[in-house]
Amino acid sequence: MRHFGESSSGDWTLTVKDLREGTTGRFGFWTMKIYGFTERLPWVGLISPANNSAGAALDTAITATFSKNMNASSLQNAFHVSSGGISVSGTVAYDQAARKATFTPDIRLAYGTAYTVTINTNAQDQDGIFIPSNYTWSFTTQAPASDGGGGCFISTLNFTRWHNLIVP
To answer: Which are the contacts of 109, defined by CB distance < 8 A and separation ≥ 6?
Structure first.
């Protein structure tokens, strides 16, 4: 199907017709040979932090584990973290044995902030097969620690004058 500029993926319908008019008969059998290969597309499996989770540590590891071994260099341009539409700069390390990509931000994440992680279709496996669609998830970091009551505590000490202090 690619010969005609069409995508070969999806559902296809085959229609068989008798193009000769005025003839009757019985359709005995037909055969169809399909050539090609089945490619197993890479996909994102486990993620961390979990989707829609709250309370992630500010230094949390942002990870995605893939179904297949990936091309590590493709992940640097495919793994994006943002907050409020602003990109978070960082680097991606890939552990081939675990099939896990880890995004490390250049600066610590902010308290109580929602982040969106996207792995886009630039991510490809070691055979050059791209993930079929963007994979996106979100999480929120932990709130700042509370001191229990707010405000501050000030202690003052009053000293009085000692009179008639005799020191031997």
So the answer is: 56, 58, 59, 60, 88, 115, 141
Q: What is the pLDDT of residues 63-75, one digit of tens each?
A: 999 999 999 999 9
DSSP 32: -
Q: Where are the alpha helices (DSSP H) in the chain?
A: 72-76
Please count the residues of the chain: 168
What tens digit of pLDDT does each residue of 86-107 get? Answer: 999 999 999 999 999 999 999 9
Dihedral, 70, 109, 52, 124 alpha carbons, nearest 10: -10
> Could you tell me how far CA 146 lies from the centroid of its own chain?
31
**Is the four-CA dihedral 21, 27, 28, 33 of positive or negative sign?**
positive
Q: How far apart are CA 40 and CA 127, in angstroms?
A: 10
By the 8 A CB rule, do 42 and 123 touch?
yes
